[in-house]
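Give me structure tokens for this 170-residue protein.
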Amino acid sequence: MTFLIDGYNMMHAVGLASKSLPPGGLERARTRFLDWLADTAKGRGVTLRVVFDAQSAAFASPEAEHRGVRVRYATRRTADDEIEDLLAAERRPSTVTVVSNDRRVREAGRRAGCDVQACEELVDFLIEEIAVPIPPAKPEAEKPVPEATAAEMAAWLDAFTAPPAKRRKP
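Here you go.
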């Protein structure tokens, strides 16, 4: 399963990006976000592909990898445009889940035949604990019960045997 993620849209949805970030803050927030995605996706058998807006970038950058997360910058265009082009080129759209809260991106995913999730749904999936099978407990070895000695047997019979009935006088 591949998740195609609208990067900044998801960062805003989970509170990692805002318009008031200090200089260099967006880059640090983006790296933190990608690190979090890489950590939480580990062991889940999914591919994460994130598209970020880069409208003011001077040159195109190829798709790169950040700790197993595929990252693409939409150079001189919006991430929405880039995602729509990626979906149009997708040979197996049924294996892709588009992740965004943006109506246009979600509709593009539906038209392409992909599953669509809100950003919060992907977060829920990623933070959900992976069920690790717990091996059954080994049964305890039965402790051997020693045979009773003759003296023990006599003491038990004495303690638990009913006293003889008293005879009645005629």
